[in-house]
Amino acid sequence: MEFSKLFTALFILQAIFFLPSIESAPTNSSLFREYIGAEFNNVKFSDVPINSNVEFHFILAFAIDYTTSSSPSPTNGQFNIFWDTDNLSPSQVSSIKSENSNVKVALSLGGDSVGGGSCYFNPSSIDSWVSNAVSSLTSIINEYNLDGIDIDYEHFNADPDTFAECIGRLITTLKQNGVISFASIAPFDDDQVQSHYMALWKSYGHLIDYVNFQFYAYDKGTTVSEFMNYFDTQSSNYEGGKILASFISDGSGGLSPGDGFFTACSRLKTQQQLHGIFVWSADDSKAGGPSLSYSDFSLASLEPSTELPLVARTPSAAAPLGSHPMLTRAKAGSFKMRHPVHLGLVDVPINSNIEFHFILAFAIDYTTSSSPSPTNGQFNVFWDTDNLSPSQVSSIKSENSNVKVALSLGGDCVRGGSCYFNPSSLDSWVSNAVSSLTSIINEYNLDGINIDYEDFSADPDTFAECIGS
Question: Which Gene Ontology terms describe the biological processes this protein takes part in (predicted)?
Answer without folding.
Answer: carbohydrate metabolic process
